[in-house]
Amino acid sequence: MNAKVETLRSLEEFDHILRDIETADYQAVGFQAVKASDDFIKTAEREREKLTKKVDPKLLSMYERIMKRYGGRVVVQVIREFCGGCYVKLPSELAARCLTDLVSCPNCGRFLYNVK
Amino acid sequence: MTLTSLLRPDRINLDLKAKKKPEALRELVQMIRQGDDAELLLATLTKREELGSTGIGKGIAIPHGRSLLIDKLEMAVGRSTKGVEYDSIDHKAAHLFFLIMAPPQDPGNQYLITLGRVAMVCQELTKKKRLFDPQSPDELIELVRSLEEKIR
Q: Chain B: nearest CA to A20, how far in angstroms?
């Protein structure tokens, strides 16, 4: 998998963690931060910030725009030459390129990845 | 959605071999995914554990996460009689593990509701050390069913 895709995937999973831990349902379970004295949400936000520094600012802004629009599933898998986010049929050449390059879906803009 | 409806006998291991957290997470994940997918799920869970342990004390751990690889809520359960070093909040070994994996988005936020239900059932399970009672996956499912009815 392309390193940029890998980082964006990590970022997306991190954003899902952040979204969840801010809810009352989650907090009721009683999970704590690594250092019990630390605020759990702030710890997560700090870690997210570290991760965002690994992403090119232009790419990060694209990522955030897509996340805002769809609320999740920003980095999606290509399934038999279809976008795993909007399910539009992708050109074969594009689907193949997702094995190695960072490619966006021409229809929804989500980042695509493909596995052999 | 009940916890019982998410439990499957083939995804319950009452004899985990792991002694430490990473091995325990691996054993749990391998009940629901294999190969590269299992590695990706492990990375997701590890990332979550780095923020704070999902060992909530009294021998219980609830590793959990959302992943693009998951289409619908999935669970696996593991138990270790000897206990696993898990960095739990009470610094004691973890014995019972409920792995919960969810898709990035799920209708009605079933994931968070399930997480809460697991925590409540676990509180009941730790009373009188009932977590060591079940001798088979079916017995554990039955015990969870009875506890779920109690907290309803």
A: 8
